[in-house]
Fold this sequence. Notes:
Pfam families: DUF1684 (PF07920). This is DUF1684 domain-containing protein. InterPro entries: DUF1684. Residues 22-41 are annotated as: Disordered. The protein has two helices and six strands; from the N terminus they run ααββββββ. A hairpin with a 2-residue loop joins strand 2 (79-91) and strand 3. It has a domain at 46-169. It has helices at residues 8-28, 36-39; strands spanning 55-71, 79-91, 94-102, 109-113, 127-131, 141-145. By secondary structure, it is of the alpha+beta class. Strands 3-2-1-6 form a four-stranded antiparallel β-sheet, with no helix packed on it. A two-stranded antiparallel sheet has the order 4-5. The longest helix is centred in the N-terminal third of the chain and has 21 residues, at 8-28.
Amino acid sequence: MPGDDFDEAAWRERVLEHRTEKDAFLADHPQSPIPEGEREDFDGLDYFELDPEFRVVARFSEVDSPQEVDLETTQGPPAKYERVAVLGFDMDGDHHTLDAYRVEGEDSLFVPFTDTTNGAETYGRGRYLDVAAPDADTGDEIALDFNLAYNPFCAYSDNFSCALPTDANDLPVAVRAGERDY
């Protein structure tokens, strides 16, 4: 459950605004992964209903020495990332962990994951989260909001190569939050 200072109304407004901006980008932007021939009929992504239960407080544990790893991709060579942290959290009554990665030059952390909805309700090869690393003010806890889980660009077009989640980032629960399958 989110922390004591969680303002659900403001959170809902922020997530809905984020979804509106994402849909506008996908419909109109020249760099949209939606094929040009499909953009005219595109009227937004299909999302799960907002659910604050899928916004969890995660313990951020920085790894002792970050490691460069190659994540398998949907096509082409592996993608290089630096494994920098493990995020530990409770969901569905169990404790789970996800590895967090950083791309050189990026401030946010990249968290690719799979769950039991993949292939039926969500993109079959996994989804992504972008997470802000904690700072001195937040300590070792961060909000991990699966309502912001999104499909990689390869979910929309075979013209993209996308990093795939590792087995370590396979959640044995249904994460019915964020973007559904396109």
